[in-house]
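Issue: copy button drops trailing tokens. Both records pasted manually instead:
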Amino acid sequence: MKTNHPGVTDSPAIVRIARRSLAMTTDTVTPLSKRSTWASRLLGLASSSLVLALMHAAQASTAYGTLNNFDCVNDTGVEAHGFEIELDDIHSRDITYTYDYNHYGIPKITEDNSDPLHPKVFIRYAGTRRPDGTWTAYTAIPAGPLNPTDGHQFTDPSVNFGGEHFGAGYYGAPSAVKYNWLIDDGTGNLIHGLPEVDPKGWTSFSRN
């Protein structure tokens, strides 16, 4: 085989090696069109993850503090008539105190032992429905965004502008703690309102 240089001849072995190298290069290099497709897919996945994260953040109700002492904004979009705290894998006897100076007063504490190995305790603040359809207590819808320090007023039941102050103490280590506003389902029954209160998104502020 002749090369492009006069007087120089390539050996058959060199030709075979060159062809094999060219074939390997062709097989291993991803065409630009395929790389563009994969880049688009990765960008799409990243965008989807970001959207889901933003949706979760948007659906998390606003709260400030910790379970022992916290303010919670009514982000359900409707008047609430109660609030429920669920603690998994502890007993009702493990509850040491509750904060009661809000529109609902002393909560009802119950224990679910349908699964004896995993009991659940419910701390339920709730108003009661009168025969005329009105409620003995409610939490208003906020007129607008509330600043963290506005929650100081949640400890004053004489005002009602979109949130409440709650709190509970306990012994042990619950495997999970869940929080939900309670709203009227339209027939007088209280159900969990949306969005759920997400404790992972809570921010702690000291009270002065």
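Record 2 (pasted manually too):
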Amino acid sequence: MKGFATIWLIALLAFSQAAFALDPPPEPALSITGTIVRETGTTIEVKSAQDDSSVILNLEARPYIVDAVTGQPLGLKDRKTNYVIAYYGPIVTRSLPPRSNPIVIICDVPQEGNFIPPQYGRVESLTRADDYVKVTVRGGSLIVTINRDTPISPYLTRNIVTIDNIEVGSDLLMWYPFVALSYPGQATAQKTVILGRANVPPIPIGATPISASATPTAAAVRLNGNKVTLGAYIISGNNYVKLRDVAYLLSGTAKPFAVSWDGANNAIALTSGRPYTPVGGEMALPGAGAKTAVSTTSRISLDGNEIGLTAYRIDDNNYVALRDLGRALDFGVAWDDAERNIIINTGH
């Protein structure tokens, strides 16, 4: 009996230690509903409709800016009213008013009638079935069911998307009329927009690199209306382009950026607004046959700040997802399904 009690105590202690070792759920985004009362070229101040509080949001964080009814892109300057819903954080300064980086700004929110605005969520985990997907958001406090026949649209493109395109890390806008009073809460989406996917942080230096098969392809691109061909590789179903090719293409546009290598710190430095200096080999199309891509362990920074771009090395060149790079450097990337072209718009 004494031996059984000892074993039981050891098991209890082991379970307790394992339980306390679990990672806490991710912090959900904060939100504010109210009126834009002040605007500069790089920030907006939103005053809450519920109280006198306000928050200053940094537009340089390049948030998704969408129409409340359609969920589609809307230029902030093109909004019809100053009434918005903004999701931001979770990091907030202690200043008055506090400052934070917005994730989504929902504009032109109807204030009359029974309009139910969309809710933002980043998928933390999901469960799939043939005819639905259940996504967990808001730090595990809400599970939303998205059925296969639910209207789903993408952000910025005209691609056809389905629940199969939703994955862990996806940023979603979801319209649902109510949430069941349970824990976690339960809701069913009536409409969904897939905004994009959260950047995956770079693999730390010293971590074991990940290998993946890379299939060569040539992408037809229209850069500010001009046709070009860009070499690319398909890795895990996504197109990755050579970082220096994009820098070369954007030279002479409104969104140039320089690329430099810091071997001592194993880091790639991008500098916006600076001309790119070619090193040779830019715009060369990949040869036939699949390659092995190895995840880049180098840190990538933009204007001195580290950014979470997923990158792969193929033949000593770094390849990144074009849309992720566009978000970081503030140039437009879209897909023209009719012409089967990638559209890059830098504003000339």
